[in-house]
Amino acid sequence: MLNAARPTVRLLLIYPVKALDPLMAGEARINPGGALENDRRWAMCNKGGTFVNGKKNERVSLVRSRYRMHPFSVFLKGEGSMNTNRNTILFIVGLALATTFALLLCQP
Hints:
The protein has strands spanning 13-14, 23-24, 43-45, 51-52, 63-69, 72-78, 89-92, 104-106. The chain is mainly β. The chain starts with 12 loop residues before the first strand and ends with a strand.
């Protein structure tokens, strides 16, 4: 009889905003549908409501993000050609603050 190894999670990453940097999590709840709570809960969209991601816009890969979960906030900063002192942006859900990146947070 084979002795099956027990599965082990060594690194747990949650992506609160689709296409942006992950958040390292020590634990996560699983929603009834099987998804991790807060994983890809938000997406970026332009003012017309069209989703924005790295496949459609390569500049997305130049955006670095940090998160605060309570209340949910996203801090964005550009890298490379987008790196200026003017493009650090704080998104707080419910407020549309989108100057340099011209992006909004929306729910997919």
